[in-house]
Amino acid sequence: MAECLLHPVHGYYTTREPFGTKGDFTTAPEISQMFGELFGLALAQAWLDRGSPAPFTLAELGPGRGTLMADIRRVTKAVPGFHAAARITLVEASPRLREVQAKTLAGQTPTWIDRAEDLPEAPLFLVANEFLDALPIRQFQHGPQGWQERLIGLRDGALTFGLSAPLPQGPDTPAFRHAAEGVLVEDNLPARVVAAEVATRIARHGGIAYWIDYGGWRSQGDTLQALRQHAPDDPLAHPGAADLTAHVDFEPIAALSPAFAWDTQGAVLARLGIDARAKRLACSLTGAALESHQAAHRRLTHPEEMGSVFKVLAMTSTGAPPPPGFA
Ligand code: SAH
Question: What is the pLDDT of residue 52?
Answer without folding.
Answer: 98
